[in-house]
């Protein structure tokens, strides 16, 4: 296995800017830091990361206002991940966690500015645990949506969401 470092890159008008299946290509570590994403349907999507702990930090991920941008960050089927200090704007769902044992979602700014369709969740956690702390979430239907999930949630700023802050 090897390290994967994606740093200081610009991604523009991509279906999925970064899409990885960590089982197919085993990495000892994955770092996605300091990048700029524009008009992506999916900014970052990582699946099957049981043998490494991705670190996704300090990225600017900007979706298309027409509603085609589905997930800023999509993480599925994994052990541990750190998602910290990212700015995620104009996605139907900012951060989507599905079957992730220990996600650490820390100090992200997740918002909708000029989306032409109704957004869904700032953070969506399905069958995932971990921590959701110090995030700012604005202008979604749900700030944080939980489904069979029990993460530690604290010190988040959740404002101007259509239905619920935490659902």
Give a nutshell description of this structure:
Helix content is 0%, strand content 60%. It starts with a strand and ends with a strand.
Which short descriptors sum up this protein?
167 residues; single chain; 0% helix; mainly beta
Given as residue ranges, the uncertain stretches (5+ residues, pLDDT < 50) are none
Tertiary shape? globular
Q: Based on helices, strands and strand pairing, what is the structural class?
A: mainly beta
Summarize model confidence as the mean pLDDT.
95
In total, the number of strands is 19
Secondary-structure element order, N to C: EEEEEEEEEEEEEEEEEEE
Largest sheet: 12 strands, parallel
Query: What level of helicity do the residues show?
Result: under 10%
Number of helices: 0
Approximately what portion of the residues adopt beta-strand conformation? over 45%
CA-based gyration radius: 14 Å
Distance between the amino and carboxyl termini: 39 Å
Characterise this structure:
The chain is an all-beta fold. The protein contains no helices and 19 strands. It has strands at residues 2-7, 10-12, 16-21, 27-33, 36-38, 42-49, 55-57, 60-62, 71-84, 87-89, 93-106, 109-111, 121-126, 131-133, 136-138, 142-147, 152-154, 157-159, 164-166. The strands form 2 sheets. Strands 1, 3, 4, 6, 7, 9, 11, 13, 14, 16, 17 and 19 form a 12-stranded parallel sheet that branches.
